[in-house]
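HUMAN: Can I see a protein plus its fold?

ASSISTANT:
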Amino acid sequence: MAKKQNKKSTQYLKSVIRDIVHVIFTEFRTLIRDRGVVIMLVVAPLAYPLLYCSLYMNETLTDVPVAAVDLSHSPESRELLRNMDATQNLKIEYGYGSLAEAEQAFYDKKVHGVVYIPSDFGKKLVDGEQATVSVYSDISSFMYYRIISQASTNCILAAGAKVKAERLAANGITGEAAVIAMDPIPTVGTPLFNEGAGFASFLVPIILILIIHQTLFLGIGMHAGTSREENRFHEFVSFAVHRNSTVKVVLGKSLTYFLMYGAWSFFVLGVIPRIFNLPHIGLTSDIIKFMIPFLFATVFFSMTISVFLPNRETSLMLFMFFSLILVFTSGVPWPQSNINIFWKIFAWMIPSSSGVQSYVKVNTMGATIREIRYEYVSMWIQTGLYFLTTCLAYRWQIKKSIKNSGGDTTAEVTMNPVEQ
C-alpha cells in the first residue's frame, strides 16, 4: 500500500514538473516572437546600464568656469585667485572690472559662479582687520553649487590660516604653539562609502535596480497586452488548465522571467559596477540572496498588474509615469524619514524600493544579509502576497475565458489568461 502511494506521489510530482517545464518553453517561444517584448526584456536590460554609466562616467565636475572680479589688485588677492584656479574643480577664465559685468556673464551662462574681491581686501589684511570675499554660485544645479562653494571655501580658509600664522609670528608665537592657536579643535572629515563624492556612485546603483524592475514590468505588461489586444501568438496549456491548476501556469510563467532576469541581473549588478568602477564592496552571495526574492516579487507584481492592462500601450504609460516616483520613494535620493506615511506605504508595496535599499546597503555600504533583514523579509512577504494575487487574478481571468467560450470547461485557454 505504501509503495503504491509513493508511486502515485512520484508520478504526480513528475507530471507537475513536466507541466511547468512545458509552460516555460511555451512562454519562451511566445516571447521571442514579439519584437517589442524582446527589445524590452533582452536588449533594454543590457543596453540601458551601459548608456547610463557612460553618461555619468565622469563622477565629479572639473574646471568649472568662474568669473573673478578683483578690485583689490593686491598680492594677496592675486594669490587667492591663483590658488582657486589651481584646484581641480575651478577654472578662473574671465576677469571683469565690475560686478555688473560678471553678473551679465553669469546670466549668459559663460560662467557658473563669481568670486568678488573688494578694493579694500589687501589693505584690511595688512592693517590686521577682517577682510571679506564674496562667492556667488549657480544654485540652479546643486552640482555646480557644491563644487564652487567647496573649492572656494577651502581656498579662502587656507588663505586665512596663512594670514593668521603671519599675525601670530609677528606677536612671537611660532611652531606648535602657533598651530594650536590657529586650530585648537582640528576637524578631520572622513567621507564614508563614496569618498570621491561622485555623482555616478550615488545615483547609478539606484538606476541599475530600477532598470531591472521597470524593464521586467514593462515587458510582462506588453506581453499580456499583446495577448489581450491581438492574440497573435495563440499558445495553449490545456493540460494544466483542464486540471484547474492555475498554479502551474503561474509558476511556469514566473520561472521563465526569473531565469531570464537572473542572467541579466548578473550582468547589471555584477559586471557593470566593475567595468565603470562603481562601488562593489558587497559579498556576491549576499547580493544573490536578496535578488532571489526581489526578482520573484517583481515578476509576481508585474503579472498581477498585467491581467488588468487593456493593451500594451498602457504598460508603457505606467512605466513612464511611475519611473521618477520610484526613484524618490526608494529612500536614497530623498531620506525616508522625510517621506510622509502615504508614500512610505506606496513604496513598501513596490518591490523596487526594498531592492534599491538592499543593493545600496550591501554593494555600496558593505552590509550583510543580516543587516538588511527588514528589506529581505519585506521582499519575501511581497513574493508571497503577489504570488497569491497573481493566482487569483489568473484564475478569475481563466474562468472568464471559459465562460466566454460558452461554458465548456474542457475548452482550451490561452497561456496568457486574458480576455480575447
Summary: Residues 232-244, 409-420 have pLDDT under 50 and may be disordered. The two ends are 47 Å apart (CA to CA).
